[in-house]
Design a protein that fits this description.
The complex is a heterodimer of chains A (381) and B (630). Chain A is an all-alpha fold and 381 residues long. Chain A contains 14 helices and two strands. Chain A folds into two domains: 196 residues, no CATH class; 134 residues. Helix content of chain A is 72%, strand content 2%. Chain A has a two-stranded antiparallel ribbon. The chains are: A mainly alpha (381), B alpha+beta (630). Chains A and B meet through helix 10, helix 12 and helix 13 of A and helix 1 and helix 2 of B.
Chain lengths: 381, 630
């Protein structure tokens, strides 16, 4: 009896360890993958409703998610060591391409965001910068004495501001904010002194009027004005926010039911399957549904924080931390905007909104996190 | 100091872990803020937003009632509703309005007026995605052209609606009036609920007078709509009550006969059924096409109608105030008899003029050398002016006023003809009020032959003739014969309109004077020396009539009247009033031909044609009836 027990226990324990080991050997973080798949499943469900039950749209989005998962898997196979070596080059190429966009980019509706290089599919270089900026900054600060000195903070800020301004010039306010935030998050994690943080915040807020006067385009100012007083423009940009609030509010506690949302199905809600998809979700699934979704997002963020804290080295920690907060920033700004807490900036809801490039970029980020989690030289404690 | 140059991994890790935990707490707090915000919207403000969502989704739409049809006395359609396809733009969906308009102008004719009204309508308040009309009455071919080009024309749509149509076009325009787009002034008067979907309202004539009956009651439906205004389903419906169909006394065939008889001369014909008071013919020439006004007339067409020297928009039959000329003589004579100034044996010697005082002004007879010895019968038959100068000289003008008043002169006595005017029946007080001058005997002389201050409309002349034909019995002239659904036409009369009371019947001291006067009027047509003997030949029934000639320009003393010299517009108006058959009247008629010269040659033949057309079939039928019963 006891002999059997002794014989079996190590084997059982071994089996358990080897299953862990399989995911680890594949460089996949099981928890993160599970949460991401759940979010994507929710996304496809809402998309089916928001696109007026267009199976073709859902299939296109599912295909993109499939591709993105493959990309994530590939990214996760490579050790952070290599990313650290490549990051300056990636950053440099990215900045060059951003300049290229401004010089010879293509686009629509007065914004140049796309770069068409012969032989390659059209793409937005700003997507590359979403990962290149945190990678480059993490690499820069990992080599420096931390907490960073003022000189290094200045250099870091320069690295952030170059792509931010180039993208703002396209103009793509949402993405430029996102990239700026991802860079600043690296600085925060690197241990920049609190007095610098608050001083900088004071400086930025005092510069806001200049920003307003010289950098922002007419439609961007309009958005801010509309945010401050949506009723001022009932049929223009204020319409979107008013209709999304009506959609969310009319959902109530339990929602109108899947496919039953009147605001989106009767076309009152604009951009219902892209930026404003959360309003469709809230209308159909109610407050309980939204609460569930927020918990899912919070779990993803928590798992990412866990990965960041447990990372091997400073580079991994800084990159993981920045990617985590950027992901949070992404969905916080989107939901805040749709619920009327924040001005309307063109940011989709990560993993849920319909859209091509951004979902691949997101999964590249998660791939990097998984790479950090699964390529540890030091044995776990 | 030196050791700060070396990295301190332990410290780095500690700072990072501390900040990661701190930021995680911040993240949790911010997620709670989001959750709180959504809780506020979804739970605390739920009722407000649920109502807003229903307001978005559910739209209360008016359903326009179909306008009542108008028939003539024989059941022929005078006004109906036709489906009309109109071209609309939904401005929210049109990318470039200017460019779209240019493109549309290349494809199909769009007038300046259309563009003008489109610009005006685009500025008015409307729901988002509500279509704005650009052009109406698209032809099949134009609809096809639009369909083929629809891919180039986002936001352009073709919609059907019912539009008033007048099949007789010009013929009944002055009777029916027309409907047109509701203007600002009418907007204040109409009930905004009942007219919430209606685009047009009766502007004139029968269409205006019976607006309340013809319009009907609006219905409503609650529909679920998309943001673009497309109706998905009807949630609830309250059907409209269509407008009542009405039948007029008007006889469209007779109307046509009268028009043809007038030809292209300016003038008016009013015929009244003496047994009912129904207006069976009401012609005012020239006329216009009322269909032009229904969906809005363009400025150019309107200007050409408005500025035409012939005044096609002017309703001569109701609003044309003419000197009645000699047609008033039978009534003046009856007044003279009533007040005892003359009797049937009273005779004068007519030298061709009348003078108030020795050596004073000459009041000329139309017959230069005079009629010689004339009694009342002959004075009517030959229209002797001198006889009536003398009568008017001796008769008190206010007595004459009171007597003529009984026949409807100087009054609006019609039942449902709102545009009719009063004309002028002068009296001493009227002249005092109007000119501040006293009444002169010379004024009386002019009134005695229907000139001077006196003015009457063709409708008034026909009405007075009908009263005479009925030996003093009054029947108010009226348009409406029947209204569907309503038991009495009295109920159909709009309460808002001022309706004249039925005048009292005219009674004479000597009843026989009616017949004697009618005999005298018969001799006008059938007598050997009657002024209208030209129409008295080959007629199977007896006509009682009176010719008249109204001066347009005053002729100076001692000036010869020469038709050739006077320009056409300065020629006399020809008038004729009549009724027939004389002993059992069925029809009373008044004809005026502007600048037509003498009434006997211009107006009387028109009346004869109308009476023939009206009476001959009726008399033939009556004869056949008698033959069958025997």
């Amino acid at each position: 009896m006891s002999k059997d027990f002794l014989r079996q226990l190590p084997r059982a324990s071994h089996a358990f360890q080897s299953r862990q080991h399989i995911l680890n050997r594949l460089h996949i973080d099981g928890w993160l993958l599970l949460l991401l798949l759940m979010l994507c499943a929710v996304g496809l469900t809402v998309l089916y409703s928001a696109s007026d039950q267009s199976m073709a749209t859902v299939q296109r989005q599912a295909t993109r998610i499939g591709i993105a998962l493959v990309v994530m898997f590939v990214v996760a196979q490579i050790s952070p060591y290599h990313y650290r070596r490549w990051s300056p080059w990636l950053y440099g190429v990215g900045v060059l391409m951003l300049i290229g966009v401004l010089v010879m980019g293509v686009g629509a509706k007065g914004a140049q965001r796309w770069l068409a290089i012969p032989g390659l599919p059209r793409f937005q270089p700003s997507e590359i910068m979403k990962v290149a900026v945190p990678m480059a900054l993490a690499g820069y600060f990992a080599d420096r004495y931390l907490p960073p000195r003022l000189k290094h903070v200045g250099v870091g800020l320069l690295f952030v501001m170059i792509p931010t301004l180039l993208i703002a010039k396209q103009p793509d306010l949402g993405t430029s904010l996102l990239i700026c935030a991802s860079g600043l998050f690296v600085l925060l994690f690197a241990g920049i002194q609190w007095r610098l943080i608050f001083g900088f915040a004071a400086l930025v807020s005092s510069c806001l009027p200049l920003f307003w006067m010289f950098l922002m385009k007419g439609y961007q100012k309009q958005r801010v004005m509309t945010f401050l007083n949506p009723e001022s423009d009932l049929h223009g940009s204020g319409w979107n926010i008013i209709q999304s609030k009506i959609a969310i509010g009319s959902g109530g506690l339990e929602g109108k039911g899947w496919l039953q949302g009147t605001q989106s199905h009767l076309d009152f809600l604009p951009e219902s399957h892209t930026d404003f998809i959360i309003a469709v979700f809230a209308e159909e699934f109610g407050f309980l549904g939204v609460l569930g979704l927020l918990v899912l997002y919070l779990l993803v963020v928590t798992r990412c924080f866990f990965i960041a804290v447990r990372a091997d080295d400073t580079y991994g920690r800084l990159l993981a931390g920045s990617l985590t907060l950027t992901f949070f920033f992404y969905f916080f700004v989107n939901i805040g905007m749709v619920t009327g807490l924040l001005p309307v900036v063109g940011l989709p809801l990560p993993l849920i909104s319909y859209g091509g490039t951004s979902i691949v970029t997101l999964f590249v980020g998660f791939g990097l996190l998984m790479s950090i989690q699964t390529h540890k030289k030091v044995l776990p404690r | 100091m030196k050791n700060r140059d070396f990295k301190d991994p332990i410290r780095e890790t500690r700072i990072f872990t501390f900040r990661a935990i701190l930021f995680w707490i911040v993240v949790v707090m911010l997620v709670c803020v989001l959750a709180g915000r959504i809780f506020y919207l979804q739970v605390m403000q739920h009722e407000h937003y649920a109502a807003a969502s229903d307001n978005n989704r559910v739209l209360l739409q008016p359903i326009v009632p179909n306008r009542g049809l108008i028939y003539d006395t024989n059941g022929k359609l005078l006004a109906n509703n036709r489906a009309s396809q109109s071209l609309n733009l939904i401005l929210e969906r049109v990318e470039d309005v200017e460019q779209t308009l240019v493109l549309l102008q290349d494809l199909l004719p769009i007038s300046e007026g259309d563009l003008e009204r489109f610009a005006k309508r685009s500025k008015q308040r409307r729901r988002p995605h509500e279509p704005v009309m650009l052009r109406s009455r698209l032809s099949e071919q134009e609809i096809a052209i639009l369909a083929v080009n629809s891919h180039r024309l986002p936001g352009v749509s073709v919609e059907a609606q019912l539009v008033r149509h007048y099949p007789f076009t010009k013929s009944a325009a002055h009777v029916l009036g027309y409907v047109g787009r509701i203007n600002e002034r009418e907007l204040k008067r109409i009930d905004p609920v009942n007219y919430s979907g209606t685009q047009s309202v009766g502007k004139l004539g029968v269409e205006k007078f019976y607006e309340a009956q013809l319009h009907g009651l609006v219905g409503f439906q609650r529909v679920e709509v998309t943001a673009r205004g497309r109706v998905l389903r009807v949630l609830e419906r309250d059907d409209p009550v269509p407008g009542a169909d009405i039948t007029l006394y008007l006889d469209s065939e007779l109307q046509g006969v009268a028009e043809q008889a007038l030809g292209d001369r300016r003038g008016a014909v009013v015929a009244i059924d003496t047994q009912t008071g129904g207006i069976i013919t009401l012609v005012s020439q020239p006329s216009f096409d009322p269909n032009l006004f229904v969906t809005g007339i363009d400025t150019k067409s309107y200007a050409s109608l408005r500025d035409s020297l012939d005044l096609p928009l002017f309703n001569r039959a109701l609003r044309g105030q003419y000197p009645p000329g000699s047609t008033v003589k039978p009534f003046v004579a009856l007044g003279g008899l009533e007040y005892g100034h003359i009797n049937w044996a009273h005779t004068i010697r007519d030298p061709g003029w009348y003078q108030l005082t020795e050596g004073g002004r000459f009041y000329r007879d139309w017959k230069k050398w005079g009629h010689g010895k004339v009694d009342l019968q002959l004075a009517i038959a030959q229209s002797c002016d001198t006889y009536f100068y003398e009568l008017a000289h001796h008769m008190n003008v206010d007595d004459l006023h009171d007597f003529l008043w009984q026949f409807g002169f100087g009054q609006r006595i019609s039942l449902d003809v709102s545009e009719a005017v009063r004309g002028i029946l002068p009296s001493t007080s009227w002249k005092k009020a109007k000119t501040g001058q006293p009444w002169y005997t010379g004024d009386s002389l002019n009134v005695g032959i229907g000139q001077g201050y006196m003015l009457a409309t063709p409708l008034q002349l026909a009405t007075a003739t009908a009263v005479l034909a009925n030996r003093g019995r009054w029947l108010q002239p009226r348009m409406l014969k029947q209204i569907r659904g309503d038991k009495s036409y009295i109920d159909a009369l709009p309460s808002t309109e001022e309706i004249a009371a039925v005048p009292e019947n005219v009674t004479l001291k000597r009843e026989a004077d009616w017949e004697k006067m009618i005999d005298a009027m018969e001799s006008v047509v059938h007598g050997r020396r009657g002024t209208a003997q030209g129409i008295g030949r080959d007629v199977s029934y007896r006509i009682a009539g009176k010719t008249g000639t109204a001066q347009v320009v005053g002729i100076k003393q001692d000036e010869e009247y020469d038709v050739e010299k006077v320009k056409e517009r300065n020629q006399d108006h020809g008038l004729f009033v009549a009724f027939a058959p004389a002993d059992d009247p069925r029809i009373a008629i008044a004809v005026i031909v502007e600048n037509g010269g003498g009434g006997s040659t211009s107006a009387a033949p028109v009346a004869r044609k109308v009476m023939d057309a009206y009476l001959l079939p009726k008399l033939a039928a009556a004869k056949a009836e008698v033959a069958r019963s025997e």
